[in-house]
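Model it.
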Amino acid sequence: MKRAAAATITLLTSACSYQHYQSALGNAGADDRQFLILFAIFLAVCGIMYLAVIAFLIAGIMRRRRAGDANVVETGRHHRADPRMKTGLIAWSAVVSTGLFALAIASFFTDRSMASAAAHQKLSVTVTGNQWWWDVQYNSPDPSKILRTANELHVPVGVPTRIILRSSDVIHSFWLPSLAGKQDLIPGRETDITIVPRKVGIYRGQCAEFCGVQHAHMAFVVNVDSHADFVKWWDRQLQPAAAPTTPLARAGYHYVAQHQCSMCHNISGTSAGGTVGPDLTHLASRRTIAAGALPMSEGNLDAWVANPQMIKSGTRMPTIPMSAGQRRAVVAYLEILK
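Modeled.
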C-alpha cells in the first residue's frame, strides 16, 4: 500500500511539473506562430462581425420600442421600406463578403507557408505509436548513423524536421502544441508533420486520440537544442551502452541479459536485442519513464521494475518476479545507461 501511494503521488507530481511545457500559445515553432497569427486574424474579423450584429440587434430593438411608444405602427397598415435599410443591407453584405475573402486569403498563405517548410526538411525522424509509448528512429543515408530511442525527441533549433508517423496497433495522434499542430497515426498508413523550432527549450507532447486505457499516460518530451548540442547528443546516442563497473551493476547486467528483459528490449553493445519494447541503450539519459508516467529517478525506476502494472495498468510490460536484491541490481545497471 505504501509503494502504491508513493507511486500515485509521484505520478501526480510528474503531471503537474510538465504541465507548463505544453501550451497552444507557446509560439516556439514556425507552424505554431503561423497558427497564432491566423487565429488572431480569425478572432479579430469574427469579433468585429459579432459586435456589429449585436449592435444592429440592439438598434433594431430600440427603434421598435420608440415606434411603439409613439404609436407609429398601426394594425393593418403597410409602410414603404426605408431607403436607408436597403443601403445598410447592401453595405453589410459587402462587409461580410470582404471579411470571408480576407479569411480565405489568410488561410491560403498560412497553408503555403507550412507547405514550404515541409518541402525544405533537413532532418527525418520516424515515430511509431504503440500502446502506450513512442518508438523513435532518427533516419540517415548512412546506416551507421541511424539511431533508435523512445518517448523523447531531440531536434536542432531552426532546422525543418520531418516527423514520419506510423502506428503499430490503433489510431494515435501526435500533438505538440507548443511547436506545431496535430497529426494522426493510422495503422497501415504513413502520415507526417514538419516542425521548425524557433526557441531552445523543453516541450511536452501528448497522444491526442483515445487509444486505450492508458491513453492519458502516453506523453513525450521534445528537447530543442542548439545545433552544436544536437550533434553532440546524436554522437552520444550512437555509442553502445556503458559497461557496468561495480559488482551490483554487473549483477544487474547479467540478470537483464539472461532473463525476459533481453527478449523485449534492445541494449546496444550487449546480447539484449529485443524490439518489442523501448530501446534501453541510453535509458537513464531521458527525462521520464514509461512515456511521461514518472520522472526519471532511482526510486521511480525501482517502482517501475517492481510492478509496472501498478503504475500503468494494462501496459504490455509484465511484472517479473524478482527478489529485492535482484531488483536493486537491475536498477543499478539501468542507472548507468546514459
